[in-house]
Design brief:
Shape: globular
Strand content: 15-25%
Strand order of the largest sheet: 1-9-8-5-4-2-3-14
Radius of gyration: 21 Å
């Protein structure tokens, strides 16, 4: 058995090597490396795939969030509600723009933002909500959108981990993650379900005015070269990454299905262990399993990680410290209520290898070693 990878990017590449190599070579031959035709092609293809009007490619997922906030005309001190159990980028951009991150707790079973926690945290200074579709499934967006409308708030979906997931409204209407709020943001970091071979990101919206503004912002505030309508940033998806993503987008549904199949095998193998909780799938959302995250209930999570590492199995902790306890946020954050679930999750969660190339042999070995720990 080969070395077990948390994410097997090499194995995935080898299956589509001919297509990827040709796409990259075509860009090099074209000598159009920034904002080339392939970037527009990819943006159009992604817009069709997820069902949105506008896709604005950018340099990475963090920039996507920052540009989205910049487009909303917020002022220093305005508050943005964000979960405390998430990757740092979601709240980092809020602080960088001199806005106030308001940390809220998450649901213990889904790891996601809840409408109850959001509404409890709203103040007269609140201007926006950033729900995070963590680990591969959607937040319950319908009630969040209802509350946002009630208080006249913007909603920016952090969809870095759930591209391709589908949300079902109570009337049966379906929308893809990231296309429900005012703006959706995603990351193409290599390990993502749709990953580039470097950094990359995208912003999506159905709002024509916001789309035009964000297109200006990502390109130094200009739409005509050297004529700058506003202050912007330099955040563009380069043509080589766009060409790679354009190839991989054709396989995204297959990739997500492979992850789902692997997740079901893990759950079948580990579901009977009393000291573990396997992932819970929400009834209103499909799950694309960016991560397969267990909760260890006996206080021995770190011991389990060491046990797996000794067997050559990588296992990651996403995330070890809630954002409100990170040094960078202590002075600038307002807590929007109790954050005890986030703190508890940080002590319990552990993620097993999850990618499109997992074999039965590898998964059986991982399951066996997890079971061995709890005997």
């Amino acid at each position: 058995m080969n070395k077990i990878q948390m994410v097997d990017l090499k194995g995935q590449y080898e299956k589509i090597q001919t297509e990827i190599d040709q796409a990259v070579l075509d860009v090099i031959k074209s000598a159009s490396y920034i904002n080339g035709p392939v970037v527009t092609e990819f943006a159009n293809n992604l817009a069709t795939y997820i069902g949105t009007k506008h896709v604005i490619p950018c340099a990475n997922g963090t920039d996507a969030l920052q540009v989205a906030l910049m487009a909303l005309n917020l002022r220093p001190g305005d508050e943005v509600i964000v979960p405390s159990f998430t990757f740092v980028a979601t709240a980092e951009v809020i602080g960088l723009l001199q806005l106030t991150p308001v940390m809220v707790d998450v649901d213990y079973n889904s790891f996601n933002t809840t409408v109850q926690n959001v509404e409890r945290a709203i103040s007269p200074r609140t201007k926006a909500i950033i729900p995070v579709h963590l680990f591969g499934q959607c937040c319950d967006m319908e009630p969040i959108m209802t509350v946002a409308k009630k208080y006249d708030l913007f909603v920016i979906e952090d969809n870095a981990q759930a591209i391709g997931a589908t949300y079902t409204f109570k009337d049966g209407t379906k929308k893809q993650a990231g296309t429900i709020g005012n703006i959706g943001c995603t990351s193409f970091f290599p390990s993502k379900n749709l990953g580039a071979y470097g950094d990359g990101g995208a912003i999506y919206t159905d709002d024509d005015e916001l789309a035009q503004k964000m297109r200006f912002i990502v390109n130094h505030g200009q739409n005509i070269r050297y004529y700058h309508k506003m202050l912007g940033v330099n955040s563009r998806l380069d043509s080589i990454q766009a060409a790679i993503l354009n190839v991989k987008l054709k396989y995204l549904s297959d990739y997500n299905q492979a992850r789902y199949k692997a997740a079901q095998k893990y759950t079948e193998g580990l579901g009977s262990i009393k000291e573990l909780l396997t992932p819970v799938e929400s009834e209103f959302s499909t799950h694309v399993y960016h991560q397969y995250t267990l909760r260890v209930l006996n206080g021995r999570r770190d011991e389990l990680q060491k046990h797996l590492e000794a067997a050559g199995i990588p296992a990651m902790i996403y995330y070890p410290v809630p954002l409100q306890k990170q040094e960078a946020f202590i002075a600038i954050t307002r807590q929007g209520g109790s954050l005890e679930i986030s703190e508890q999750l940080c002590k319990e969660v552990i993620s097993l290898p999850m990618h499109t190339e997992l074999t039965d042999e590898v998964q059986n070995f991982i399951i066996e070693k997890v079971k061995e720990f709890f005997k």
